[in-house]
Amino acid sequence: MHPKYRPDIDGLRAIAVGSVVLYHAFPKALLGGFVGVDIFFVISGFLITTIILQSLAAGDFSYRDFYARRIRRIFPALIVVLLTTLLVGWYMLLSDEFAELGKQTVGGAAFVANLVFWGESGYFDTAAETKPLLHLWSLGIEEQFYIFWPLLLGLAWRKRWPIVRVVLAVAVISFLVNVTTVHPLPAASFYSPASRFWELMVGGILACMRLKPPAPNVWRSHVQSVLGVGLIVLGLVMIRSSKAFPGWWALLPTLGAVSCIAAGPNGVLNKHLLSNRVMVWVGLISYPLYLWHWPLLAFVRILEADPLHPSPVYRACAMVASVLLAWGTYRFVERFARNRLGAGTLKLLGGGMVLVAVAGTAIFFGVPEPRNSSARLQVVANATLDADYYEGYKLDQIGEQLIYKVGGGPKRVLFLGDSHIQQYAPRVMELARTLAMPDKSAWFATQGACPAVPGVHADKNIGCAERRDAMLAYALGPQVDSVVIGGCWNCYFVGQGALAYYFRDADNKVHPFQNGDGIERSLASLEYTLRELARHKKVYLLLDNPAGAAFEPKHLIEGSRLTHMEALATTPTAPLSADQKQLNDRLRAIAEAAGAEPIDAMAVLCKDGQCLRTLPDGAPAYKDADHLRPRFTREEGSYFDRTVRTAPATAAPQPAR
Fold first, then answer.
1. Which region holds residue 198: left if phi is over 0, alpha if psi is between -120 and 50, else beta?
2. Coil/strand/helix, residue 28
3. Is the entire prediction scored with pTM above 0.90?
C-alpha cells in the first residue's frame, strides 16, 4: 500500500539533489551543499516507514512485495550507471585506477559501498574527487536500512510494542553513536550505518506519529513549512566540510526536512515553492540525477591536469549532461521497469546486478586490462599503489593512542610527526629484519597532516592536537631513549599548503600562516620543543624531502586519456624549488640551535639544485607529489639509519645520481 502522492516531497527532493550537485560541481557556491544527502535520508525514512506501517495496518504487508518494489525502484538506473561507468573507465583509466573502479563497482552492486570506502579511508587513500562511484556510499546506507527496518517494524507490530517508543529508542542509540564517534573516529561516523540510521529514523518517527493524522491546522502547517525551509537553509550556509559532520550539525538539515514533511502539502512554502512544477520535475529525476552527476564530475577531474580544480566550463557541461542523462534514464529506463510487474522483470534485474558485480570482481583482479595498460604505464601505476608503509609492524597502544612498533631491544626510539616520518617506517623495518638494531625498538606515533609542533592547528585534522600533546608528553618521560620528529614542513610552511593551518597561542589567540605571524610562532614552538626534549635525551629532526608536481609518478605520463597515453623515459632528477631550499636551511639551523641532530634528506637526494625522482632502475621514487614510496626508503634511505642502527653505517650516504 502506497501513501498518497505529495508533489511537495518531490520538491524537497529537488532541494536535496540540487544542493548536492551544486556543491560537488562548484563547492564555493554552496559550502554546505553536501547536507542534501541527509535530507534524502529523512525523506526515505518517512516514505518507507509510511508504506510499511500502512501495509501492516491493512494486513497486506509482504516482505517479498516490499523488496520487489525496492528492486524495481533502485536497480534499473543503477545497473545502467554502473555499466556505463565501467565502459568509460576501461577507455580512460590506467590499470591501478581501473582495478579500483572494479572494487567500487562491486561495493555499489552489493550495496556495501559505504563499508568499502570506510575501509579505504586514510591519509594515503586516493583523492575522493577522482573516485567515480564514491557517491554510492549513501545508497549503501539506505539499502542496509531497508534490510533492517522492515524486520524491526514487523516484529514490533506483531508483538504490539509501542511503535513510536521503539523507533525513538533505536534512533537515540544511533544518534549517540554518531556524536560520540564523530571526533575520535570521523570516517566511521561518516560511513557507518550505526551512526547514520538515525537520520532515516527521524523520518520514520514522523511516519509513526502520522498513522493517526492530527486535526488540520493551517497556521501550524505554515509555521512548520517556514521553519523547515529555514533550518535547511541554515544548514546549507552554516555547515562546512571542515566541521565535525554529521555530529550535532546534522540536526539542522534533518529536522528541517522533517518539519517540511510534517507541514503537509498546504504549508505556505510547500505549496508555493516545493510544489512548483520545475521543482517537482527535478524531484522526479532526482535519483538518476544523483547517480549520474558524480561519475561525470570524477571523469572530468581525471581528464584535467589539475584534478582538484577542473575547468568551470567542463564542470558546467558535466552538470548539463547529468541532467539530460537523468531525464533519459527516468523516461526510458525507470518508468519502463516500474510498469513491468512480472517475476521475469525481477529476475532480469537481479541477474543483471549479479553480472555487474561479477564484472567488477574480474576487473579488480585484472581481467580485462584497460585500454591504457602498457608495461611502462604499469611501472608508474605500481609506484602510486606502493603505499603500505607499516607492513610487518605490530599495532600497540600508549594510553589511548595507537602506535606501530617493531624490534624488541630495550632502548626505545619514538618517531613523532606525520606521513613524512611514516614514510621511513619501511627502512626501519628493513634494519630490524637484517638484525641491524638488536638493542633498539622503534615506536611510530604518526597522523597524516598532523605536525608535531605544539600550537599548530588545522580545522580539518580532528584529533591531531590531542594525539600530538599526548605523545610529546610521553616523549619527555623516562620510557623513551631517543626521539625523532619529522614532518611535511614544505606542506605547512611553503606555498598554498599554509592556507589551512594557523597557530593558537597560550591565550587562545589565532595567528594565521597566511598574512600573519603564524609560521614564525610555529617555528619558535618547534625550536622550544626540540630544546626541551634535547635536555633529557637524544633528539633528531628529520628535514623534508623535495616535493612538487615534477616528482609525481603520473607526471611521467604523456598524451591524452581520450586518445593515447604512454609513460616516457625521464631524467632521474628534477629541480629543487628555492623556497623549499630556504626552508630546509632554516630548519637545519633551528635543529642545531636547539641541540637536536638534523637528518638532511635534501643534502643526500639533491646535488647542484637537482633532486632524485627515480630509483636506479628508472622506476619512480615517489608515490605521489611529496611522499617517497616504501620501495625507495627501504632500499635507498640509508641516511635515516643513524636513528636506530646500533653500529655506525658502513656505507656512506649515496649522492644524487
1. alpha
2. helix
3. no
